[in-house]
Design brief:
The protein is α/β, with parallel strands linked by helices. It has one domain: UDP-N-acetylmuramoyl-L-alanine:D-glutamate ligase (3-Layer(aba) Sandwich), CATH 3.40.1190.20. It is built from nine helices and 15 strands. The strands form three sheets. It has a nine-stranded mixed β-sheet with strand order 5-4-1-8-9-12-13-14-15, with helices on both faces. A four-stranded mixed β-sheet has the order 3-2-6-7. Strands 10-11 form a two-stranded antiparallel sheet. A hairpin with a 5-residue loop joins strand 10 and strand 11. The protein is globular and about 50 Å long.
Length: about 300
Amino acid sequence: MKILLVGTVVKDKILFLDKSQTESFGGLTHSINAALAVCQSEDRLIPVSRIGADIYSEVIQIWQNDDRLVTEGFIPINQKNNCVELIYLDANERIEKSLFPMPPLKFEEIESFLDVDLILVNLISGWDVDLDFMQKLRMTYNGLIALDIHSLTLERLSDGTRCLKPVKDIHSWLDCADIIQLNEHEFEIISNGAAHPKIFFMQTCVQTDKIINLTKGADGSESYRINNGRCEVIRNSANKAIKVIDPIGCGDTFFAVFGINYIRTKDVQLSAVRANTLAAVAGSIAGSADSATLRNQICLYTREDV
């Protein structure tokens, strides 16, 4: 199996309540490590991301010993890499800043990578790709496309601070993908807080069969499977045996694990259960967990050989 993963590798700088600080690679890195944790030896993962000159050589080295990862999709750019600063004000509130934004990918930059079984587009920055890119991708590629709404619901102020914003042409964005992922805050933004998820998705996605994963943190997830004009709701609880200490990257982990499991099994519930479990495992580790650690942990908690 070959998987194309589109988004942005970022450098995370986190300031915690106790004034301690950490730095690690984040953004698409979380999805890459999660994908590698569930990929087999014969699988190939092709991440596509612009990489700033200041970290390019370091990023290339992270996965240099893993033959499953194809590095040709890492595109060097002569500027500093996108950096995300997270400043925690309390346990539930934080200020997020996006520094050194990079230009969006052009469709032509991924055309040579489209001979794949699955495409995962994770909007880490929100401008990783634009709507024109997604519409060209939909017209060109006949396979399964998954889209994580993620930071499409965030705007960037002049100082880099991120804040919520309405999404223009959300229906057009949703039309471009077969699997959609978003969390509860993102749903409130795209729906203007006006509709129950089932009603909203039936109204906006009725023309095409889709799977929409609404992630709910400690409450697990809900999957809305729209098929032939009907909507089935599949609810999955979080794994309470796993203590989450760092939720950053949990959604990115869920996104990759669900997509890869679904392309293999076509089983929505099984894919969501596995995605919830590995997302919690990722959150039980401070910073970005490497693929080997994630693989070992998911085998422990699921008692499955992934």
